[in-house]
Amino acid sequence: MELINYLRRFRKHQKYFYLSVLIIIAFFIGSSLITPKITSVASDLMEDVRLADLYSKKNNIASEFLQLNSFLNYSKNIIEDSSDVPLSSLINKLHFVSDLALSNAVNTSSYIYTITPDGIQKTEHLRPDEKLGEESVPYKKILLQAPKGTLDTIINTGDKVLNRKAYVFQRNKDTTIIVGYDVDLKAFWKYYSEKYQGRTSYTSVFNKNGICLLHPEVENIGIKIPSYFDSFAISDIFNQPDSEVLIDNGFSQYLGLDIVRYFDEVIIGDQALIVVANFMYFDLQDTTGEIQQYFSWISFLAFITFILLLLIARFQLKKEYRENLRVLKEKEHLATANENYQRENALLQLSQLKKKINPHFLFNTLNSLHYLIETKPNLSQKFVLQLADVYRYLLENRDDNLTSLKKELAFLKQYIFLHKIRFKNSLNIKISDHSGDDLILYKKIPVLALETLVENAIKHNEITKNKPLDIEVEIHATHVIVANSYTPKKKKNIEGHKIGLTYLKNIYNYYEVDSFKTKIVEDKFICILPLLS
Question: Which listed residue, 131, 167, 307, 480, has the most CB atoms within 10 A of its CB?
Fold first, then answer.
């Protein structure tokens, strides 16, 4: 009797039986087709994540090494611009920069050598916490025998590895000036590793000669590590197209694991560096093979228990629903992560922009202040107040990277005032409102937007009495137009120009505004800044 009842129930639900069999067969077929696709998609995704991490590390390295080289660049500019200045005045200026170099905690010492027919005059500066005597600047022959130009070399001094940066300038046939400073690379690694803590990889940096500058195993700093360049020569890295990187497998003594290394170059002025991002190695084929085997066992068990037709059908529907829900959540998560990445990238570029502004701008304004104190003491007081307001604005903490047009215009006027002291009538700016709206000043624009465009104009154009720089700021109902006369210098600082404009472009991309544009029309450089609510 029970058998008859079972057969009746089976006939009633036999469609579920056939449907379950078809589902199981389809699952085996689909699994064999989908597994390679999963492997391919996972590989592409992992590659994108690694490349994004590599480019982030390149930006960090470029930013930090630009900061390290800034003091040498200041000294070089002072020397090259002081051909008519007495030697004693030039040395005094270099003393100021030499003292300023020690404001960076990783710089151990700085020095100035003046070689004349009367002999060698030297000045050496040490950090307060350094307890070295006459040997504080080792291997002086490296300096005294260096050729003219920039010197960038590595010196091992027992417990320290120093990166010696110096500039050798022959003022005339009887006078040579050498100015520079030493960077403690082990201290620099400690600072860098604490500031940029990597979770998925670690960073190594080499110079063009293959000497390690940064490495988590500090005993490797200052020496060559042949295992990094077994598969290709160092020159191969520098000869790669801009959009390509070299990839190699290896074994990390630091992690004790197999790793994948991504090699790429970064150019900082006339210094070429190799950045290596080291990632743990994952065999996706083995992982997906285990997943496929697991699904096969589930399908086999489902086939054995097909008698529970209705439950299996419901289970499959529920499983599909959960899978769709998971995919939807992953898409939402990726969209949110991409949005956060754009915002963090824009904030990083704003931070780099501020770092670029502060030392260079401070140095120029202090020179101008020095001039005013001697010639126009009353104006110098106003100059100091304006300078304080400018730096208060630069150091102001914000929850986001937007500010009101009113604040940005007020900051621009203070910024222009400081530059007018330097350029006088060779720099002219005109601000006009064509909007007809009293509330226009409370709309938002990116922080430092107007200052970035004005600074680019000053930095990349000739400014003389015969070729003054004219800048026009026009306020309209939906945007602000900034236009300047276009007389570019012969030597362009393209990288500095890109940082500011890329920062503005990324900010507008983050807020999904595509009307930000720059163009050159006849003899003017024009930028359109959309206003945000």
Answer: 480
